Amino acid sequence: MRRFLLLYATQQGQAKAIAEEICEKAFVHGFSADLHCISESDKYDLKTETAPLVVVVSTTGTGDPPDTARKFVKKIQDKALPVDFFAHLRYGLLGLGDSEYTYFCNGGKIIDKRLQELGAQHFYATGHADDCVGLEFVVEPWIDGLWAALTKHFTSTRGKEEINGALQIASTASQRMDPVKPELLHIESRVELLRLADSGRRDSEVQEQNAVNRDQSSALIAESEPSLTHSVPPLSQASLNIPALAPEYLQVHLHELLGQEESRASVTPVDPVFQVPISKAVQLTTNDAIKTTLLVELDISKTDFSYQPGDAFNVICPNSDSEVQHLLQRLQLTDRREHCVVLKIKGDTKKKGAALPQHIPEGRSLQFILTWCLEIRAVPKKAMLRALAEHAAGPDRRRLHELCSRQGAADYGRFVRDAHTGLLDLLLAFPSCQPPLALLLEHLPKLQPRPYSCASSNLSHPGKLHFVFNIVEFLSPTTMEVLRRGVCTGWLATVVASILRPDTQVSPAEGGPAPAPEISISPRTTGFFHLPSDPAAPVIMVGPGTGIAPFIGFLQHREKLQEQHPEGHFGAMWLFFGCRHKERDYLFREELRHFYKRGILTHLKVSFSRDAPVGEEEAPVKYVQDNMWLHSKQVARVLLKESGYIYVCGDAKNMAKDVNDTLVEIISKETGVEKLEAMKTLATLKEEKRYLQDIWS
């Protein structure tokens, strides 16, 4: 078999799952994939590697490579490396990202660019998969085309060697990749990759023909609207291309625990975890506000946890206890929830390189693992739907096959991915599905800690750390009358309920303080969202809603610096803040007034998107970008003439994009250049680290 090196750099498990899929399909196509996490540098050596390289890379934060790739990236970015360091290397790269963020697929792009700078060459076009529209629209055709590219590579490098029959790829795929022109070696457009999907052969998939019973089909046709549980023609009558079933690899035993104490799982083996008490919790919004916003103060005085304003940190949170109990009940494992989970690799597994999941610790109870270790609300991948279908019957089985099929891609996007349908939703929707526990442990990803921005300065609040969040609420996709809360925000709201007080209450309630609840936190290593090193540089801050959090830390920090250096020169500080209603959700209203009166905050521009104009006054501006446009001359002057900095924090999907577009318009208008030139100017600001974003979806 022809060997290739397969590396993945993952943050939440997506890249790893895709790499494992490639590894398993490789065998079917007559290849042998040598699979490793990119962090396992002792198991591979690119300097001496002669086989082709395939890399799957995710993106984290606002455009960083994942934590597992940090050392690798640092190593290859060594400026002392010669330009031909990787001249012998031939590779293909698949980047994962989300186009709602400005630096789309930037984790992959960083590695891709640097490999080329060091002399490596593509043997296959780079793919950029977009989680915003569905990774599978790019991932599946990219994997389909990989086998033809590998075949071409081995054919060209070992021309006379006979090719095994298992390596023959359909002629359409061969024509697609032959020749592989240099100008095609960097595929940016999802459209191009979608075209590949149309022309590529459905290798490694099994055909499901004539799976629909005619009577069943007639009943479904009567339903004019598709849903999670049923389809309509043509899908309901189609022959399906469904993915090959992923091989089972875990053997699960449940043993009774003997009263052992269980502590919370750590985030990762390398991150320090701090158990800290909550010293204060304040509701910042009124009870009639659309969203409830809380400020929480942590006491870090007895730890060595340190931070700067603008940093973020992780909160280690559990799944909802009620959802865990419902899941145990649905799996008929309620009476064994306290039993210890013992995992082993199945002796007869066909999964290559099968290993025990690192995020499932040894000697823990089933309830602990479902509560602290597995993301039970994760949107199931198609591989999991395919596995669940094996344990369902009748219409349920057919529908699960549809949802994981090529033909059912639109329904998967609408009813699973976009609806944020989780495992429990699926098990409630498909009652005949009775999966074994091993299936869940094989397919559910690690429960990720949730990141939050620091909303304080240690100069202003020594030994304390503040953060702010909205209590996220949404309707269940399967039972729309049930209101759910966010995994972390819902838990935090419950944890602080005993000590929560309204914003107007300055001191704790009478009757003695309630015992301080504790939570676990860990630092985040990618600190980039910091104030300029030169305090004389002017700063523009854009942060509607809870996006104001890091800027409160900035302002507290600046206030203390100005007190310590009364003769110092400090640049102007602009804040563009926005909320729905002035009287309901104007966060940190009094604090901002205080900073403004003291001259710390030199310009405060606030917009209220839902407040109607009073009397005959003009309609107020609705959004932060509208206020920026009103002050376009000043914004342009700060950024282009005074070497100022602009920071944007908040929603990536709408606000950050609108602010970016407004900045392009401002630069174009105030400098008299075309939009393309204005975009280049903005790109330069990003490169100079003077346009910084801390955004989330």
TrEMBL record:
Residues 271-532 form the FAD-binding FR-type domain. InterPro entries: CysJ-like_FAD-binding (IPR003097), FAD-bd_FR_type (IPR017927), Flavdoxin-like (IPR001094), Flavodoxin/NO_synth (IPR008254), Flavoprot_Pyr_Nucl_cyt_Rdtase (IPR001709), Flavoprotein-like_sf (IPR029039), FNR_nucleotide-bd (IPR039261), NADPH_Cyt_P450_Rdtase_alpha (IPR023173). Pfam families: FAD_binding_1, Flavodoxin_1, NAD_binding_1. Gene3D superfamilies: 3.40.50.360, NADPH-cytochrome p450 Reductase, Chain A, domain 3, Nucleotide-binding domain of ferredoxin-NADP reductase (FNR) module, Translation factors. SUPFAM superfamilies: Ferredoxin reductase-like, C-terminal NADP-linked domain, Flavoproteins, Riboflavin synthase domain-like. Its cofactor is FMN; FAD. The keyword S-adenosyl-L-methionine applies. Its EC number is 1.16.1.8. Keywords: Amino-acid biosynthesis, FAD, Flavoprotein, FMN, Methionine biosynthesis, NADP, Oxidoreductase, S-adenosyl-L-methionine. It is an enzyme of class 1 (oxidoreductase). Residues 4-147 form the Flavodoxin-like domain. This is Methionine synthase reductase. It comes from Felis catus. The gene is MTRR.
